[in-house]
Amino acid sequence: MKIALMDSGIGLLAAAAAVRRLRPDAELVLSSDPGSMPWGPRTPEDLTALALDVARAAAAQRPDALIIACNTASVHALPAIRAELEPALPVIGTVPAIKPAAAGGGSVAIWATPATTGSPYQRGLIAEFGGSAEVTEVPCPGLADAVEHGDEAGIDRTVAAAAALTPPDVRAVVLGCTHYELVATRIRDAVQRPGRPPLALHASAGAVAAQALRRIGAEPAPTAAPSGALTVLRAGRVATLPDAALTYAEGRILAAGAPVR
């Protein structure tokens, strides 16, 4: 089987690694356009056009399913991408894991890009799934860009700034941008308060990977031989994983798990 993933940049690594864990034998296609980053500040029309180009490049590889491994693109471009590619190609969007995070009530924070924070889309999810939880929206300006470039100082600075905006009694944090999943441990360390119960982080990679398999009628087979190839596309052209990707465990998993072509 072949699973494609798309994002503006390397935020797709977490979901791709989750697919690799579930099906080491699946061929992966990673389609991105880092030259157009960041997508968040763009108009919905501009962002949709960019996302469609990245999706078309992925679809040209004839995958069995396409994961939009980007919260911002899922918010603005998912309907357009589905309208063009489905039903021939199942398209799976990425939604912040607000529902499971809020299930236990208490204080919950959603870390997201400034464009997503306060958006009607996110506010709608909070209204629908927030329940009795006290939900705080935390904007994280610059964090996705720092993660994209492997900027260690930038990651430390932006994580610390977002942690300062997070309520001290928070019990769960929703990672509302796929890039943030690559630095989840650093986010937990920054937010965890001494004497408080262990902080729960809620990400989307595992859920979208499992949904992609369900959409094509495939079962998880984590013990399968790691035989799936990895195709990397940047702006529609065959490339290799960028150096920054290899600074993260997910990137190293993908690089080591199968030959890159």
Structural notes for this entry:
The chain is of the alpha/beta class and about 260 residues long. About 40% of the residues lie in helices and about 15% in strands. It is built from 10 helices and 10 strands. The chain has a 6-stranded mixed β-sheet. Strands 6-5-7-8 form a 4-stranded parallel β-sheet. Helix 1 (about 15-20) crosses helix 10. The longest helix has 16 residues, at about 45-60. The chain is globular, with a radius of gyration of 17 Å. The relative contact order is 0.20. This is Aspartate/glutamate racemase family protein. Keywords: Isomerase. It comes from Streptomyces filamentosus (Streptomyces roseosporus).
Keywords:
single chain; 261 residues; alpha/beta; six-stranded mixed β-sheet; four-stranded parallel β-sheet; Asp/Glu_race; Asp/Glu_racemase_AS_1; Aspartate/glutamate racemase family protein
